[in-house]
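> example.struct
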């Protein structure tokens, strides 16, 4: 069965989970999660597979072994395509993202070298500028000061301060999300716009870890 949209119950499920993050709530609403969140999300990823590659839905169970927060479940459902673009559903609506997440120390070093180099660095400046103009927010972990050895007047100092870099855009849980073709069109368009930043990261950093 093809993707037919996200019903209101999907967002209501996450609103309830945020209020009662317990095994009891999960067990009582698991069927709702499977039919209104996981099922439609898998159908969406399947629709996109020919263009963006095989998709993966992340686990909704949290790894609490090293966390002070022992809440057992995530209050959002994330997924990504093999190409690197990301999608997230929660009580507030839908969010898409793409970029370089959680890189290793070696990848950060390669990132900074590529940003420092004129051709590849300017290419990233252009990509980020285009995404901002298209309504995406640019985010990621940043150093409070410039990296060691980088001059204060470096033309790409802001990008060099990033330890991770990604663009994202979201939409509230409005009625149009029940319309499968409209959701597919919006997400497809956004992922196509995000592809350049994902590909830049893959080319210059050797791939990246995914949001989860």
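> example.seq
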């Amino acid at each position: 069965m093809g993707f037919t949209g996200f019903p209101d119950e999907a967002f209501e499920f996450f609103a309830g989970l945020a209020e009662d993050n317990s095994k009891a709530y999960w067990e009582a609403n698991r069927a709702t999660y499977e039919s209104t969140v996981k099922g439609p999300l898998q159908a969406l990823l399947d629709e996109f597979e020919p263009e963006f590659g095989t998709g993966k839905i992340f686990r909704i169970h949290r790894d609490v072994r090293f966390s002070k927060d022992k809440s057992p479940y995530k209050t959002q459902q994330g997924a990504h395509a093999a190409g690197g673009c990301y999608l997230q559903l929660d009580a507030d609506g839908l969010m898409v993202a793409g970029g370089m997440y959680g890189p290793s120390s070696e990848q950060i070093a390669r990132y900074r070298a590529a940003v420092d180099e004129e051709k590849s660095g300017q290419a990233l400046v252009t990509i980020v500028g285009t995404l901002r103009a298209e309504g995406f927010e640019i985010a990621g972990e940043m150093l409070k000061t410039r990296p060691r050895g980088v001059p204060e007047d470096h033309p790409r100092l802001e990008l060099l301060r990033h330890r991770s870099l990604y663009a994202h855009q979201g939409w509230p849980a409005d009625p149009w999300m029940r319309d499968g073709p409209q959701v597919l069109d919006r997400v497809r368009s956004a992922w196509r716009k995000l592809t350049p930043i994902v590909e830049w990261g893959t080319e210059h950093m050797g791939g990246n870890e995914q949001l989860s």
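> remarks
The radius of gyration is 19 Å.
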